[in-house]
Amino acid sequence: QLQLVESGGGLVQPGGSLRLSCAAPGYTLQYYAMAWFRQGPGKEREGVSCMSSVGGTTNYTDSVRGRFTMSRDSARVYLEMNSLETEDTGVYYCAAEMRHGTSCHFGTNFWGKGTLVTVSS
């Protein structure tokens, strides 16, 4: 059972930056498509970005495109978040899908427990 652990959340002012990280201690993530989701206060969980296991294909939801960058290596996935807005506040979840290839579709077989990002002045 793959257990994902997120880190890097915190309190940041509007316009600031944070870098989230996700790992599965003891496991490699290189054969999984990976994704970041978030759930803001009173909102449904939404997909933020995903990345394929091969070739680095990425998809972003419109509201973060150009501000967020997802990356990965064999052990971790990262979400670099710049120009943060109050609407980006929420719990950010890492997810893994048992999909090895050049595409990603926000699929989820495994979830982390989330890390809280608060954007406030």
Question: Can you give a write-up of this model?
Answer:
The protein is mostly beta strands and 121 residues long. Helices cover 0% and strands 45% of the residues. It is built from no helices and eleven strands. The chain has strands spanning 5-7, 10-12, 18-23, 33-39, 46-51, 58-60, 68-72, 76-81, 90-97, 110-111, 115-119. Strands 2, 4, 5, 6, 9, 10 and 11 form a seven-stranded mixed beta sheet that branches. Strands 1-3-8-7 form a four-stranded antiparallel beta sheet, with no helix packed on it. It is globular and about 40 Å long. The mean pLDDT is 96.
Helices and strands, in order, run as EEEEEEEEEEE
Structural class: mainly beta
| Structure annotation, total helices | 0
* Rg result: 13 Å
Biggest beta sheet attributes: 7 strands, mixed
Shape: globular
Q: Could you estimate the helical fraction of the residues in percent?
A: under 10%
Strand content: 35-45%
